[in-house]
Design goal:
The protein is mainly α. It has one domain: MFS general substrate transporter like domains (Growth Hormone, Chain: A). The protein has 15 helices and no strands. Helix 8 packs parallel to helix 14, helix 8 runs antiparallel to helix 15 and helix 14 runs antiparallel to helix 15. It is globular, with a radius of gyration of 20 Å.
Length: 402
Amino acid sequence: MKGKRGRLSQAMIFLILFGVVSLFSDMTHEGASSIRGAYLSLMGASAGVIGFVSGLGELIGYSMRYVFGRLTDRTRGYWPMTILGYLLDVLAVPALALVGEHGWMWACGLLVVQRMGKAIKKPAKDTIMSFAASQEGVGRSFGMQELLDQIGAFLGPVLLSAVLLLRRQGELFQNYAFCFGVLAVPGGLTILLLLFTRHKFPNPQQFEPEPKEYVPFRMKGSFRLYIAGISLFAFGFLDYALILMHVTRAYQGLVDQDVLPLLYAAAMLVDAVAALVFGRLYDKIGVKALAISTVLSSGFAVFIFAFRSAPALLVGVALWGVGMGAQESILKAAVTSMVPKNSRATGYGIFECSFGIFWFLGSWLMGVLYDASLPAMVAVSMAAQLAAVALYLLSARRAREE
């Protein structure tokens, strides 16, 4: 929000700085995500293993957020938790360059470490972001942050695509390993800018006024329905590693292996736009905005897995990006609106814990169904997401009655 002289408020400057931190962070780990599935496959991991590891990483990355959210609320150590989490998050990625050609187990371990870093940082990071966001419009603020996130998520795969094109004459596994080493650069920039932001804004909780009285956290009916809805969404929303593995197997001859990172970059670009659009929509109509985005994105699996054509693949990946963008912006905004300041990290931890458990179960099941029956996998994915829409709408109705 601008002041009388057109200057940005301190809260907005903080949001922008943290958004740029997220840009470099996403450039690091989303760049890695663009080749992660193919990298594991080259090392001999099966579809079931990839689905299990992806789900396990999300399970740890989300379920432990409840623990670290409670710890953050208890200690008010917002910055220490954020910095520690970022260190683990961005350093585990370039370490993937050091695993051997048959070291898929080591690679899986590093991916789990990376998700643990996210578990440590996310409740604290989202909470201090919410303090500033409460002054600037929560949907708009988290949408803007996700926009910057996804610019990084777009640039990371583009960078790796350029590296692969320059090294296309080399052995594929070694080229992928080199790509993970390159990601040490944006990883280092993430930490430097994070420390600068910490120096400039040591007490971001001051952006949001303290409540007049202590309000203990309790699970209202609307919040329970919301948790149930996002859990079903997580269950049915496929991890990109499984999508990428399918593309490498089913689209041979239609999609060049060297441009696979660009496909993920396109999804991240759609994600960025969707986050901004649906974040602003949330400020106007609330949780209904999430219902709209989920309906739009629910058919992505049909286009990706039921057809074998480049146009259908592009449509499917774009719809997947819509779902990711709305999820990242609106889910955070909704918690800010539903949970009081003094227990918000716990609120973030609860919803993300549930999200992660169901993401893990869904990813595991989808990996198994992929090997058994693609039509069954697509049907389960769509059914879970559409069931989530009904719960979102019930949550919005209950919130008006509370």
